[in-house]
Amino acid sequence: MASVKPEIRTFLCRSDNIGVLIRDPASGACAAIDVPEAAPVLATLEAEGWQLTDILVTHRHADHIEGIPEVVERTGARVTAPEKAREAVPGAKRTVAEGDTVTVGDLVAKVWETPGHCADHVTYHFAQAEVVFAGDTLFTLGCGRVMEAEPQVLWRSLRRFLDLPDATAVYSGHDYVLSNGRFALAAEPDNRNLKDRVAQAERLAEQGGFLIPSTIGEEKATNPFLRVGEPALARAAGLEPGSDPAAVFTALRAWKNRF
Ligand SMILES: [Zn+2]
């Protein structure tokens, strides 16, 4: 199969949710990743002249699914939801679980179950396009809150992102970049790459933008929750260097909750 590069648009929804459209230029197939709010999704489709064919839901929280009924009514798009969220997602036509394949035209994604933020959370990885839609699992410079599991469950989900190629673009479900950056700097004040990225995020925010997507390589260099094997982060979390990364993760996540 020929290599296909998708067209992707991001836009703010509600107050800090990120709306995303991904389109296969060859077939015209187009998917929304979650629908936090109908109006900005419909406005972007209109502005681009795109036809929505699919909605890929990452998890059942209201701020990711509330716009679905209106968008389905207007576009007829097919809703794909996590199997574990089958009852909660309005109009779910198809459900997916670990290892399933989803296509948007010629674009192909693998489904990962990534529990931790909530039990039903899934991530969509378009390997050939080098794009991953992380929902509320992995954020630019941060990670999701742990709501329905022990912290190590989220750590196991996050660890999977470390195996992706560095060039993979990461789209997260919220713009928490500046507050995540403040915490990251508190945890790892001597990380030069991190200082540069936070400065870049601040410049973007001044212009009304946000540092999304990120890349796996950038996150590996700057996101404290992916750097829990580093001695500096173990020390910052109050643990011995060389401690179990899951324990460092748990301590960092608890610190972030109080931060
Ligand atoms: Zn959520």
Automatic annotation (TrEMBL):
Q: Where does Zn(2+) 2 bind?
A: D63, H64, D136, H174
Binding of Zn(2+) 1, residues: H59, H61, H117, D136
Which InterPro entries does UniProt cross-reference here?
A: Clx_II_MBL (IPR035680), Glyoxalase_II_hydrolase (IPR050110), HAGH_C (IPR032282), Hydroxyacylglutathione_Hdrlase (IPR017782), Metallo-B-lactamas (IPR001279), RibonucZ/Hydroxyglut_hydro (IPR036866)
Q: Which residues cross the membrane?
A: none
Could you tell me which Gene3D superfamilies the record lists for this protein? Ribonuclease Z/Hydroxyacylglutathione hydrolase-like
Q: Care to name a GO molecular-function term for this sequence?
A: hydrolase activity
The protein's required cofactor(s) are namely:
Zn(2+)
- In what pathway does it function? Secondary metabolite metabolism; methylglyoxal degradation; (R)-lactate from methylglyoxal: step 2/2
Give the record's keywords alphabetically: Hydrolase, Metal-binding, Zinc
| Bound cofactor: record note | Binds 2 Zn(2+) ions per subunit.
Q: Which residues form the Metallo-beta-lactamase domain?
A: 16-174
Q: What is the similarity comment for this entry? A: Belongs to the metallo-beta-lactamase superfamily. Glyoxalase II family.
- What's the protein here called? Hydroxyacylglutathione hydrolase
